Amino acid sequence: MNPLIFTTILMTVLLGTMIVMMSSHWLMIWIGFEMNLLAIIPILMKKYNPRTMEASTKYFLTQATASMLLMMAIIINLMHSGQWTITKVFNPTASIIMTSALAMKLGLTPFHFWVPEVTQGISLTSGLILLTWQKLAPMSILYQISPSINLNILLTMAVLSILVGGWGGLNQTQLRKIMAYSSIAHMGWMTAVLAYNPTLTMLNMLIYIMMTLTMFMLFIHSSSTTTLSLSHTWNKTPLTTTLILITLLSMGGLPPLSGFMPKWMIIQELTKNNSIILPTLMAIMALLNLYFYMRLTYSTSLTMFPSTNNMKMKWQFETKRITFLPPLIVMSSLLLPLTPMLSILD
Amino acid sequence: MMTYIVFILSVIFVVSFVGFSSKPSPIYGGLVLIVSGGVGCGIIMNFGGSFLGLMVFLIYLGGMLVVFGYTTAMATEQYPEVWVSNTTVMGVFLLGLLMEVMLVLYVLKGEEVGVVFKFSGVGDWAIYDTGDSGVFSEEIMGVAALYSYGAWVVIVTGWSLLVGVLVILEVTRGD
């Protein structure tokens, strides 16, 4: 793609999300979502083959439907409250429709079916933008309407997402699908605590973005999109195997690493609000996630995965320069001792 | 009949929307789009928005739909699908028509229809001339306000249109 056009389109994606996050008029928020969707389609279709076209079409259709539902909720809100400013949505019908629309944009269950298929059909860099930047805009709107969201619907979607994200990822060997199911599960954790303490949603989003960024960059660095290909990184860059081990365990939420911080805070906040069964269920289902991360680390860093002899050597293309990889790795694994700093968020 | 003109126009509006939503070939979709555009213009004019109705006719029907018609005529196939050629298309069209007829009958009975908002009988659709300031037309002032207070909206919309053109060129360019 012409570099100037590519830069313009990428800047429009950024501008769309910024408009969503900084507007106070519901119509401008909808315009921001549409601008974001319009501009990310050619980014998803960077490589021109039928799979990317199919993936971008699926993404466009689901997100356009979600935008239509959002517009309907905005108009019902306008009809019942007579104004266009962003406050909590007072009418229950509008609130439910808006929650469903934003859940479709995020990829929460029962609207999660597009996430693995779209992520699998596009290149690794596009998948990175899809799973990290595109989650910011809907989450910021959910944060702003959080006092009025119907708790039953929100918690049902959250728990089902954690379930689907865990079980769905179990049978996968394609790395992009694994990251997609991991995204579904993390969105579930984020929306579970939204009604109780929205600050923790933002914390979880921050740490999730850092870890997903790290994982994708490690995959891009070793040019691997399947488990088999990832298991050959010991041959190409042995250091990457250790980094993949640490980051994957952090994504699974294991204690001395920073991925544990959001899960710990969320469980604490939920138990403070006298719900015990829910965080127990969520923590148990996070084990499913941990299982397939462990399987990846097992085949990558802990064992030398069996393969035929002529496949053991990975072809050395020119080294990709990955920006910010060392700081990202440090941040996604060593932030746990900084947890007392969260008191500044009050 | 004139009192209920908005209701009649809205029924024709919905029927033509059903007509192109049942997915015949784009040429026929454009045909009912013309009808729905004209009828929508009538609805807006009945609410006092003569400027906006004129905009619909001039810009939407006379500009965008004409270009759409030309491009579709260039890309059309030898036997385009009509509503009666394919069982599926006809089935969906009849289903939409049936639902609209049932809704109209329910409304005409004069009882309350409370789906999302309460709407009691056909009387709700009649226009009463109240709140008219009488000196200037409110909707032309609204359009003028778009260019003064709403300058940010103009910038955002203009940028979206530019990026829309770039995106379409990128997507259809191919390799």
Could you characterize the architecture of this molecule?
Chain B: It is a multi-pass membrane protein. Chain B: Pfam families: Oxidored_q3. Chain B: Its EC number is 7.1.1.2. Chain B: It is an enzyme of class 7 (translocase). Chain B: It is found in: Mitochondrion membrane. The complex is a heterodimer of chains A (346) and B (175). Chain A is mainly α and 346 residues long. Chain A has one domain (1-342). Chain A contains 16 helices and no strands. In chain A, helix 2 (26-44) runs antiparallel to helix 3 (50-81) and helix 9 packs antiparallel against helix 15. Chain A is globular, with a radius of gyration of 20 Å. Chain B has a two-stranded antiparallel sheet with strand order 1-2. In chain B, a hairpin with a 3-residue loop joins strand 1 (112-114) and strand 2 (118-120). In chain B, helix 2 (26-46) runs antiparallel to helix 3. The chains are: A mainly alpha (346), B mainly alpha (175). Chain A binds chain B through residues 1, 5, 8-9, 12, 15, 19, 28, 31, 34-35, 38-39, 41-42, 45, 48, 76, 79-80, 93, and chain B through 116-117, 152-153, 156-157, 159-160, 163-164, 166-167, 170-171, 174-175.
What's the quick description here?
The complex is a heterodimer of chains A (346) and B (175). Chain A has helices at residues 3-22, 26-44, 50-81, 92-106, 114-121, 124-132, 136-144, 151-168, 175-192, 198-221, 227-230, 233-236, 238-252, 260-272, 277-302, 325-334.
- As for the number of domains of chain B, it is 2
Strand percentage of chain B = under 5%
Structural class of chain B: mainly alpha
- Counting DSSP E segments of at least 2 residues, the number of strands of chain B comes to 2
For the termini of chain A, the CA-CA separation is 46 Å
- Determine the number of helices of chain B (DSSP H or I, runs of at least 4 residues): 6
Specify the biggest β-sheet of chain A.
none
Shape of chain B: flat
- Our estimate of the beta-strand percent of chain A is under 5%
